[in-house]
Specification:
alpha+beta; 7-stranded mixed beta sheet; single chain; Aminopeptidase; 195 residues; globular
Length: 195
Amino acid sequence: MRVETYVGEGLRDVLADLARLRVTVFREFPYLYDGSAEYEARYLETYLRTPESLAVIVRDGERVVGASTALPLEAETPELRAPFEARGMDVGSVFYLAESVLLPAWRGRGLGVRFFEEREAHARRLGRFDTAAFCAVERPANHPRRPAGYEPLDAFWRRRGYEKRPELATALSWRDLDEDAERPKPMTFWLRALT
């Protein structure tokens, strides 16, 4: 396996792989995302327009089996910026860790840690960010699609130094696997100081 990084416009080389992985992995609980290639193409354009964006790609041979992305929060959607702006926080100082997607056969090999390390290191090199942040969907414990034995990633995120911040909440809309239309899903931010 090898890990590669792509920045800004350079992400164009891996956009199709990113889209494929997002649609595949986010179908799993807790996201249950019923995605499409068309939506992914529009969503990922933001990374091409943002010179400081980053994609960390994992290849097994030539096959892309995992990816993780990040970009300045100020380049993200109003829904993601709003909780920070409502509290007078400087979105220009926050580096947003957008997603990590890894196919099941490659999990448990330390790549999740590597994704955080690479994205945090990129933010530090840029020299203008003092906080790393990501948000995670909130699903009820009794959700009908929750798999038996499912363990949320909260403990892993805490070990990486992130703190759940319930006051920084938002909603993002997508269509779940059993829905006929997009509906808002509650999201909560996790933060870590980079300095």
